[in-house]
Amino acid sequence: MSTPLVDIRDVSHRFGQHSVLKNVSLTIEPGSYTILLGPSGSGKTTLLSILGGFVSPSEGKVFIRGQDCTFVPPARRPTTTVFQDYALFPHMSVGANVGFGLRMRGVDGATRAAKVREALALVGLAAAFDKKPHQLSGGQRQRVALARALVVEPAVLLLDEPLGALDLKLRRQMQDELKAIQKRVGTAFVHVTHDQEEAMALADHCVVMNDGRIEDEGPPERVYARPATRFSATFMGESTILAGTVTEAKNGTIAVATSAGAVSLPGALQQGTTVALAIRPEHLVLGAASGAVALGQATIGDVVFQGSFKRVLATSALDPALQFIAKAPASAKVRAGDTIAVSCDASDIILLAN
User: Fold this and answer.
1) Which CATH number belongs to the domain containing residue 344 in this structure?
2) How many CA atoms lie within 13 A of 268 on its CB side?
3) What is the distance between the alpha carbons of residues 132 and 167, in angstroms, rounded to a whole number?
4) What is the pLDDT of residues 55-90, one digit of tens each?
5) Is residue 1 part of a domain?
6) What is the pTM of this model?
7) Would you tell me how many other CB atoms lie within 10 Å of the CB of residue 245?
8) What residue numbers bound the domain in which 266 lies?
9) What total of structural domains would you count in the chain?
């Protein structure tokens, strides 16, 4: 078995009496694009800071390329960081900004200039060498910061919410560019965000964090389609959550009593076990559907047109506290106040430990 590029072992961290990371272990493979995803206060930025050497963990170890880097300062470890505010030197040219790290490492001027021009070409800014940062747009400054981080050829590039200051259209464009650049250079990227769409657009390894712990990790397709925990199911995209109790278990199938009725699905839990069932919006069917699991009637409370689909919120007639979240086709004739049957294919219901 090959050694991972990054191996974070049992890392905990406290600020005073407040624990922000709690026994976190994580491995990162060469060439991967890892997203650390979670709400504010989940510990994702602290974990990135520990990986970059800006914070030393209270407990645990960090290995990079098999070497213990736990207490190695940022300048001496094989990582570079792109910050949200880019941290460019306003008085320096773009070329000087990008070449700053090489200059600090004693690289001669001619070699430095050649490498800087190569890095700027990589991010589509070959003509910006002599410009000043204030002459560039926000997206261009972000790419300058990316070039500055890549030019020193780090083993791991760390990105701290690098797209947070950009407008929606530019953020989407930069997502495409980041992914393309990462594929071209082959450097492992570790990227912090709270944006679920950004995570799914970029990551091949998604790490969902909550309250200083890793809730779930894996390919984004798996984390979305089969989340491991209730938190992951509600943070990585939306879900309708049905609380229930296993009433029968035999032959690899369980029957679960919920407020929307009885549901049968594959599982191997004991009778009496409390569970949560998650259903993604695209899997809820509004209207009668043969062969599906019937979830009763619901009254539509809100319909929001979102381009390619309509987001529908509906309240269960059986349980007023239960709200269904559905995606209906953009052409669907659904209106607030309508009462409609709700159903779902059993294979699309996600069983979570409660």
Assistant:
1) 2.40.50.140
2) 2
3) 22
4) 999 999 999 999 999 999 998 999 999 887 778 899
5) no
6) 0.88
7) 14
8) 238-353
9) 2
